[in-house]
Amino acid sequence: MALLLVAFALKCHQISSSGAIGVGLITILEFNDALNELIIGWTTPETSLGAIARLKGFSQDPPAEDDSSANAGVPNHWPSKGRWNLMPPQHHTDLIYLLNSAMDP
């Protein structure tokens, strides 16, 4: 819109003054600010109301949980004991060493 106003001012400089063009550009900027505030004012409550609707739907109809894994027991390959392997801190830049030390049991 501002581009059209400037193009009009350049082509028809005999019938318009620079003050009128300045007022027109400021009016366009104010309109853009008002439109921006309107969009923000519309989308913020809409986002909040959408979140409230999702919470209401979840509280009225929660998804069912699968209880079959709760009583499954421990698998046969589960370790019978654990151990801590405390090592002093070291710094290595060799990628192969780092990968091998990460894979050591």
Instruction: Write down how many β-strands occur, each being a DSSP E stretch of 2 or more residues.
Output: 0
Principal-axes geometry comes out as elongated
Largest sheet: none
Span between termini: 69 Å
Order of helices and strands: HHH
What's the overall average pLDDT, rounded? Answer: 80
- Number of helices, where a helix is a run of at least 4 consecutive DSSP H or I residues: 3
- Helix percentage: 55-70%
Low confidence ranges = none
Which structural category do the helix and sheet elements fall into? mainly alpha
Radius of gyration: 34 Å
Portion in strands:
under 5%
Summarize the model shown.
The protein is mainly alpha-helical. Helix content is 59%, strand content 0%. Residues 1-17 form the signal peptide.
Describe the structure.
By secondary structure, the chain is mainly alpha-helical. It has a domain at 1-9 and 17-61. It has helices spanning 2-11, 18-60, 95-103. The protein is elongated.
